[in-house]
Amino acid sequence: MNYLQARYTSLLKERSRFERSLLYLALLLLFPFLIYSAEKRIFVTATDTEHYSWTLNLISGIHQYHPDRIDQIAIFDIGLTSEEKIELKKLSFVEIYEVEKANPEIFQKFTVDTHGKIARGLYSWKPVVIKQASTLFPLFFYLDSGISLTGSLELLYSSLEENGCFFIDCGHNIGRMTTQHVRQKFLLNHKQNAWVLKENGISAGFQGITRSVYSSYVYPIYEMCFDTKNFCDDGSCPKGFGFARHDQTLFSIQARLANLPVHKAIRGGKFTLTVHGNKEKVTLSQFIKITRGDFDLVKAREYLEYKQTL
Question: What is the structure's pLDDT at 31?
Fold first, then answer.
């Protein structure tokens, strides 16, 4: 029993029959929200040995801001060492999953821009991870390991439950990050679909997913993972090599084609959440920060919680 439920029980003992009836009615109306507020949360990420410390930092934030609300922290292995997996399994709520090898290159390292950035499988593993997570969990947030939590995600989870998905605007349009191959794949050169190229993309590294978007969003992108050409930067984006966004391009196009809601917020931008009919103005920086290794690992370790051993 949470605090609000306990308080109602106490008040009932102090009131008249009429007042007790009113309190019973109020409790009946509030009961669904009280039950929902007590639900545990699922967090999903994927990582490899190069991003192991980033993952520790992400887990630290989850432990810090959701100490009593975690059901599971699902980590999908795209290249961890045996020792790293042993250490991660010691952390509270952490479970490690293998990733379906949807294509032969899914764990292979590729150079994806002119600055030498390396990406495994051209990020073709991410739609696979989100599809696998969707079969395991009815509702979850996927977070890239390069994200740090700055506060509780409870309000976002409430929005996710009510709206079926949660996406944020990435700040640039889909056209600039789409290769000719992908344009043809989605028929974006056709007049009826050309509008998609002018829309802004979504952040692929921070997504709220429920099974209500499985057929319209999750599974169509998963089906594209069997051919890495769909993720490859072949230099045909408007500004050339280095501008394709691999998985982000595909997620963005599918979200727009499915007419899913996208919040216009990035890098701390303001946006409005509607939860249970109430509108609340928030900023993305209340919840997360994209750090990509720019954090204090020593401090982060202070918040890590470990499973109790018998």
Answer: 44
